Amino acid sequence: MKAVLFASLLTLAVLPMCKPDVTTTATSATSPNSPAAVRAQFDILRDSADANWTRMMTSDDKKLTDLRELLQDLSKTPGANQAQLASLRQARARVQAQRYDRQSMASSARIDRYDAVQDSVLKIVYPIAAPDGNAPSERIRDYVEAIQLADNNVVSYRAHYDAAAKAYNNYLQVHREELDKMGSKYAQLKALPLFELGQ
């Protein structure tokens, strides 16, 4: 009886050593250079760049919408210069039409032109909306503050986008061969332009 018990215990002790190494098998199936891992990591980096771009454009859209509403409210204030405000509304519409996209931003001149046109409109609007920092109404003051905040955040949004786009571009460069072999949307991908000077 003791011999049978000993044999059973020996079998239980030895069995785990005979099992295949699941950790090694799983690791080799998901190695950093396997097609699945390359695709998954690339999708994460692409999604991050997309999310940062969307956040930045959403902020800019909101700034331009607030500017439109601000000009509309200013036109209702007593003694408003209607001709000047009409001109500013037209200028604001031209600003939006000149905005860069993810392809045209490869031209840094286009970004600079967009920034300059937007700044020129805002420099005229601020003193009209809040002369000496005094807005004629709380609503107008809120619009001015929201526009100024969004304007101050532009550099931060662009820096975050650049960081995400750089990570995407670096991964694309290192794994170009693997990604090209995946075909479909992964083949013939191009690096994303950056906001950095000289890009």
- The ordered H/E elements are HHHHHHHH
Beta-strand percentage range: under 5%
Distance between the termini: 82 Å
C-alpha geometry: elongated
Tally of DSSP β-strands = 0
Mean pLDDT level: 85
For the largest beta-sheet, the strand count, sense and barrel status come to:
none
Number of domain modules: 1
Please tell me how large the radius of gyration is: 29 Å
Helix count, DSSP H or I runs of 4 or more residues? 8
Low-confidence runs of at least 5 consecutive residues = 1-29
Would you tell me the structural class of the helices and strands? mainly alpha
Helix content: over 70%
Q: What report would you give on this structure?
A:
With 199 residues, the chain is mainly alpha-helical. 73% of the residues lie in helices and 0% in strands. α3 runs antiparallel to α4. The N terminus is likely disordered.
Core attributes:
elongated; mainly alpha
Give the helices and strands, then pairings.
Elements: H1 2-18, H2 22-29, H3 35-74, H4 82-97, H5 108-129, H6 138-152, H7 154-174, H8 176-181
Helix pairs in contact: 3-4, 3-6, 3-7, 4-5
